[in-house]
Every structure is written in structure tokens, then in C-alpha cells.
Design brief:
The protein is an alpha/beta fold. The chain contains nine helices and nine strands. The strands form two sheets. A six-stranded parallel sheet has the order 6-5-4-7-8-9, with helices on both faces. It is globular.
Amino acid sequence: KVPTKFAVNVEGTAIQDCTEFGFSRVARAPFIRAERRMFGAADLMVTRNAWAATSLRADFGVPDARIHVAQNSLAVPDAHRWDGRGRDHGGLPRIAFVGTWVRKNGPLALRVFEKHFKGRAELHVFSNKTSGPSIEGVKWRGYIPREELINEALPSMDIFLLPSREDMLPWAALEGAGAGLPIVASRIGAMSEPVRDGETGILCEPGSDDSFAKVLERLVVDAALREKMGRAGREHVAKNHNPDVTYPRLIDRLVTLARS
């Protein structure tokens, strides 16, 4: 009788919750123990980013032979900031914030914008927070259908802001880069995988208003830099987060595991 093989999908480990995001090691201890048992028994560990794979090796002793990295991937849309479809709105630079307000650290985005960029840019908030303080240039857009966000809203923006408190490899970063926008994000988790610091965007110190303000200042005043990074980001996603490559490789690996 052939035993059933099983694979585990991992975005991040409980140990990384402690080392990266400041969670209590005591509170996470039951999760760490459970992960040790599960990871030790699994035939294959599938990680959604390379960052998680580093913890499997270093913290849990999982050998490379049992690790397969299948990074979050998406097809870049036809619509993007530089597609020649009249995206140059001619107004103030538009900064897009997308995601759950607290987890993605919307309060930081709002503070930095009000203090440094009010009257000099616009902040478009696509979030579960549908309204807020009446601040010049802040547009509370709420959640809109994804198709509208990808094909209409994001291509009309200029900068993608992602000051997350906790994140691994967020879909939002891929969507922003796919739209041809430079990404300004927290230096946490696997964020450096979709955001090549200084090339496709700029990574900031997590939770630092000053760090985000300085980086946004560079991009708000420099349209050429925005275009250079935005184009590079779209190319990076198309090449390194291509679902037509990532997911067939994963399926092949699972088939091989089942047949072994």
C-alpha cells in the first residue's frame, strides 16, 4: 500500500512572525511546535516567496530537495501607465494606496501626505476605509471591482504606496508594478522580491514617516524617475512573476511527487 504524499503551502513561518514583525515568541510557541512537526513530515514544502524558504532551511532544517519556490505571480495587464492611451492626466502626481487600511498602514500614508504633499500631489485611497478626514488632495475611493482597479484606476496613477505593517509577497505590489508604477514600500518580508530597491521602486524603513516622506519626495518631483522605475517594474513582474512559468513548474513538481 503506497502512502499518500502531501505538500505544504507556506507564505511565511511563525518564527518569521517573531523575527520580522515583532510577535511574541511565547505566544507563537504553539505554532512553532506545530510547524516543526508538519514541516518534518511533509514530502514537499511549497513557498510563495524565496524569503519563506530561507526560514525553512535555517530555522527548521528542511533540505533544499524538499523545497519548491513558487512565487506569487500574475499576468501583467495590457493597460498600464505608459501604454499611450492618454494616461498623462496633466495634473498633480497621483499616489495610490491599495489595501486594508490598518494592516497596510493607511494612517502612515495619510500622515505623510498631509504633512508633506498636501497641495503638491493627490492621494487616492482604494480601501475598506471609504471615508476619512477632509484633506486637500485626498480621494477616498473605497473598494472598486478588481477589473476596474487593474485596467482603469491604477494605470492613471503615478506612484504606488505600500507602507505595510506586516506583509510577505503581496499581490498589491505585483499589481502596482504591472500597471507601470514605481513602488514605495516597507522593507519587510519578501517585499524585496517584487520591489528591486532603487530599480523598480524604493524600500523604506517600516513605520518611519520620515523615510517614506523622503522617498516620496524624490518621486513626486521627478517624473522621469517615476517612468524609469515604473517601466522597469512592469518588465520585472512580466519576467520573474510570470504565472505561465511559475505554476506549470509547480504542477510538474507535484506530479513528480505523486508518481515517486
